[in-house]
Amino acid sequence: MNKYLNEYNEFIKQFNTVGTNVLFHKHDGYTEIVSTGYADLENKIPSHKDSIYRIASISKVIVAIGLLKLYEQGLIDLDEDISKYLGFKVRNPKFPDVLITLRMVLTQTSSIIDNGIFENGIYKGYDGSNCTDDYIPLQELLTPNSKHFYKGYSDYLPGTNFIYSNLGCGILACVCEKITNRYFPDYIIDVLLKPLDIRSGFRLENIEKIENLVGHYNYNNGDFSLYRNYDSFKKVQCLKYPLGENYRGVAGGLYITAPDLCKIMSMLMNKGVYNGIRILKESTVIEMEKVQWKGTPTDPTYKAKGLQMIIMDEFTKSPLKGHFGNAYGLRSFMLYNDLGGLIFLCNGANFINDVEHMTILQEKVIKFLVEKTNI
Q1: How confident is the prediction along the chain (375 residues), in pLDDT tens digits per residue?
Q2: For residue 38, what are the CA distances in angstroms to 56, 118, 224, 342?
Q3: The domain spanning residue 13 has which CATH number?
């Protein structure tokens, strides 16, 4: 019987969600998971602990882990110019003499932004490139006056101001590909997922039990509609362009179950070790969790940043570290502190984002879980 989450079923009913998985994990290994609602709304297939979600931007933490494995091997320097690793010059044209470093990209202070459009038959910028499967070189997005460039940089000095960037995460994956000479989805399986016995990944063909993939739903006009399933996800998953050019898909594209995501969270909670297997050095995890940037945005989830980690103290005495995810109808988070860890995966809800990155649903679930688990 659940010790901490036994009231969750009643609590979640007020939010009209399609399906959820919520998990609580303690440092001593004690874990609870509760599943509610449906993985497949049309066929009334219930959610269960092995339901597989595309977890959206929680994936950014996993990309950072892959990059930091290279840092531990001395193959990259976090404070080096990213141009060195990408093979072409990257500069904010407003600050042409200021280097843009990997650390800036990891903290989303690089001044690289996601803006994009479709104009005169050409996909421009990162958001524009996401509307097509056409091969668009990364250099085209980052070099002013190039065919596919569109407002790629903010007005802020690199390293000084936080601006959320999915392209930045894609750049980190491209650096991994340049260094390892391997596609990032294959590389991360070998250095993180396989050692933790996680049979999934960034591509659908890596999922061992594909029948457990949940539908992701949008709420429109008083009802839910299927937005993404296997067939539609396959069209937007990580493709295979030349190595170092696969910046699309990784920022939110990891498919995983709540228990498997808990393995990654537990590894971070235990400073790089899971079940006796060391994935990262203790010093590396400490660096990830350290406040690297601090500011005053209105969204409480991004007042402080580690390396692809949010750090927030609005809800607990011990700051929560981790990430949120919002995409394709999904709402999620993976958050932990010195007392325990929380995972929430929801494949559809009727709440609209009322702030930039955290919905009312996510905020209220966090408050409920913090109160019940006393973390």
Answers
A1: 588 999 999 999 999 999 999 999 999 999 999 999 999 999 999 999 999 999 999 999 999 999 999 999 999 999 999 999 999 999 999 999 999 999 999 999 999 999 999 999 999 999 999 999 899 999 999 999 999 999 999 999 999 999 999 999 999 999 999 999 999 999 999 999 999 999 999 999 999 999 999 999 998 888 999 999 998 888 777 779 999 999 999 999 999 999 999 999 999 999 999 999 999 999 999 999 999 999 875 566 778 999 999 999 888 989 999 999 999 999 999 999 999 999 999 999 986 544 445 688 999 999 999 999 999
A2: 19, 36, 12, 21
A3: 3.40.710.10
Contact 274, 196 (CB under 8 A): yes
**For 133-238, where are the E strands, in sequence order?**
216-220, 223-228
Q: Do 20 and 40 belong to one domain?
A: yes
Residue of 49, 57, 55 whose CA lies nearest to 259:
49
**Is 2 inside a domain boundary?**
no
Asked if residue 270 belongs to a domain, the reply is yes
Mapped onto helix, strand or coil, the DSSP state of residue 217 is strand
Q: What is the largest CA-CA distance in the chain?
A: 62
Please state the pTM of the whole predicted model: 0.96
The number of domains in the chain is 2
Residue 292 forms part of a structural domain: yes
